Amino acid sequence: MDRARRQRAVALLPICLALAFSLTAVGSSHWCEGTRRVAKPLCQDHPEDLHCIHFSRGSSGSRRDSGSQAVQYIWETGDDKFLQRRFHVGLWKSCEESLSSTGEECRSFQSIIPAEEQGVLWLSIGAEVLNILLMLTSAILLGSRMSYHRSGFQWFKVDASVAILMVLAGLLGMVAHMMYTTIFQIAVNLGPEDWRPQTWDYGWSSCLSWSSFALCMAVSVMAMSRYTAARLELTEKQRVQKGSQHSQHNFPGPKPSESVWETEAAPSPEGHALVHLSECLPPGDPVKVSMC
Question: Over the stretch 107-123, which tens digit does the pLDDT of each residue have?
Fold first, then answer.
């Protein structure tokens, strides 16, 4: 692989990484993670379970009335009556730990946010999808530049197109991330009571999405730098070619013959002078040279 093709392959690598990061982030459900505070259930069926409220009944002899109910003593107080259930949220669903099993309970994220804010969520999803399409188009353009080299084709125009597409992809991704963060904060404040988290933070999917944004901006800068360098090189070549053509058209011709010629020959080996032309000859007369 020659040097130029190797450089084009290196330029294609960050676009593929950004595309992989965006696809992974959009398909995952770890944009935000945190804990939710829920009350423990009563330990009726599983008294040995640590994730439920333990209670004890009063003695039957303390109550003489047959219709009276036994007194239940609950020993958990304060924060001991609550559990911290971990959850994670993505563009499509929200999942949290299940108390009854080792799995997770998931529901649609669209059902959590208020109805009047669902349009912003779909705008965020649309921006993410368009971001992926722009990066895919850029990868196809650079791949064609690497695999198919056509003589005479101005490939720096491909670099200019890649720079524009990648900066648009990065800006769309940034807007989509910010819109999703706003929607999540609205859901935290106005969402259903059985979902509102107590603490939350950004997850690894959010880190991937912002890493994709950074790669998009870096690829755009590098592509624009290649375009500028190629454009300057092409302009310099055109200037040199025009200069050479201009010098060929203005090349000086031979000077016109003068009316007076004077030639002196060096002495021969025998020491004799060879030629002397008179300065008084008319312009039209033939010149005769005698040698002795």
Answer: 999 999 988 888 999 99
CA dist., res. 217 & res. 188, Å (int): 31
Sheet holding 93-97, edge to edge: 104-108, 93-97, 82-89, 32-39, 199-202
Contact 36, 196 (CB under 8 A): yes
Compute the distance between CA of residue 279 and CA of residue 277 in angstroms, rounded to an integer: 6
Tokens describing residue 76:
């958990």
SS3 state of residue 65: coil
Distance, CA of 70 to CA of 90 (rounded, Å): 47
Q: Is 73 exposed, middle or buried (0-12, 13-18, 19+ CB in 10 A)?
A: exposed
Bridge partners (DSSP) listed for residue 93: 108
The overall pTM is greater than 0.85: no
**What is the structure's pLDDT at 254?**
52
Say which residues have a Cβ less than 8 Å from residue 176's Cβ, sequence separation at least 6: 124, 125, 127, 128, 131
Alpha-carbon span 143 to 137, nearest angstrom: 10
Sign of the dihedral defined by the CA atoms of residues 240, 243, 248, 252, in that order: negative
CA-based nearest residue to 130, from 92, 169, 161:
169
CA angle 178, 181, 187 (to 5 degrees): 145
Phi and psi at residue 164, to the nearest 5°: -65, -45
Instruction: Record the tokens describing residue 1, joined without a space.
Output: 């692989």
Take residue 146 and report the two structure tokens written for it: 């690497």
- Residue 38, class by beta-carbon neighbours within 10 Å (0-12 exposed, 13-18 middle, 19+ buried)? middle
Spatial distance between the Cα atoms of 209 and 128, rounded to a whole number of angstroms: 10
Confidence at residue 230, expressed as pLDDT on a 0 to 100 scale: 77
Instruction: Please list, in sequence order, all residues whose beta carbon lies within 8 angstroms of the beta carbon of residue 104, skipping any fewer than 6 positions away.
Output: 95, 96, 97, 98
Cα separation, 265 vs 263, whole angstroms: 7
